[in-house]
């Protein structure tokens, strides 16, 4: 087989393994079997048979997706786990076996893990809540000599070792789960060792996405805060939303929380036509916004004064969406708590649904977000930069424009919705189907590499000056207002989610799309290299900070698409290992 045919075969195979790797972990035997079959087919039959097998695999995966849980079901399961869990601060020399033996006296432990954040912590989930109550009965209030104690009993506990000092000096035998992403230079080296761009994108997604443990910790923090709020609203819940649960969250991302009061019994109850009835006496306010501000003010004060581990509490009540912001040191999370942000909750559900429909969605979103952050297109500091939410909508819109489309439009999802899916929030139609089995996807077998190249091509030539991005329709619309970048809010359709972006930042984005497209189309940059050194190639070259030095205006970039600077860069990459550098 010629080298050209071998490369074509490898690229044709890349998507099936990238997709299978994300959604069939633990089934290594079956993957190895497919690899052996692929080798046999390549030698004896040809790539057509392999493509046919890939399509059969994709159909089988589609059938499996019908069993996927909607987000509300995932939330319920996670919340129940959190209610049975405690967060324990441990000393560095904690013996894992002794630790578990001690806690097991209170009940069966279903799950536990250790992590580091301002010290070593353990999350322990028991089989039932009675075990937590038993633990509380044994726990004591700390005795201090100079300070006074606020006697609020939280499920955040400290492990004390009353044994000899020598036992503290022993080497710990536990492993800490990572709670942050690897540095960008380590990521580039990791990607440089992959066999294809598809594998690079899959590897990046696996390295960046939230882990099972990190997700559990986020729900546990919400549960700990709910223990404060129930003193005033016994039937309330606190739910994570946004990147913490929509499937696109990166390790280390902020924790956005919603104080949900809609579950309180007594709302919209039909009054009897005759006889006697009782109703609660309650305070009245001039507006729902005023109620939200009052509730957050009180809860924020309680978090500040009573909740251990919460520092830097800020009550930002005059914002468009009032919130309480603070740092939760035991988890390391930067937290925002809101109480009237239901549209954002629906947006979270929508992004989760899109991410579950096809694994390529998440891989492309994670890749584009990482690329954007590496080149300072996005930033953690508020400003004129493009936000992660805007970038995600841009990726979804691009996937809707493929032929055939990879994901359906929001209007189509609305057409498939049943009566239980109907949702109108403050006059905004937020209705869309939640049952995966009702969504029939069209067959599109484009590889991740092809989609990444086409994404850059698509937005390098997009008519930003005239057109708006609209995932309801799945096609560009005329701009309803003057703005450099217009992306229609999926539910609050009169709003532009990218209103903050200025012309300079949009031009940088377009210029980088042009440059990245050019790089990916060069044979020197999208071929794996032999040798022991991890020389950047493919996706790894797009993450090198040196590529964005001296980005000119879009007009000038069009005049010299193959600049001498990029040619020199590609030459320098031949045989030069990755150098450490700072990046986000």
Automatic annotation (TrEMBL):
CDD domains: NT_PAP_TUTase. Residues 450-491 form the PAP-associated domain. InterPro entries: MTPAP-like_central, NT_sf, PAP_assoc, RL. Its cofactor is Mn(2+); Mg(2+). Keywords: Magnesium, Metal-binding, Transferase. Pfam families: MTPAP-like_central (PF22600), PAP_assoc (PF03828), RL (PF17797). One of its GO terms (molecular function) is metal ion binding. GO terms for cellular component: mitochondrion. GO terms for biological process: RNA 3'-end processing. Residues 197-355 form the Poly(A) RNA polymerase mitochondrial-like central palm domain. Residues 71-139 form the RL domain. This is RL domain-containing protein.
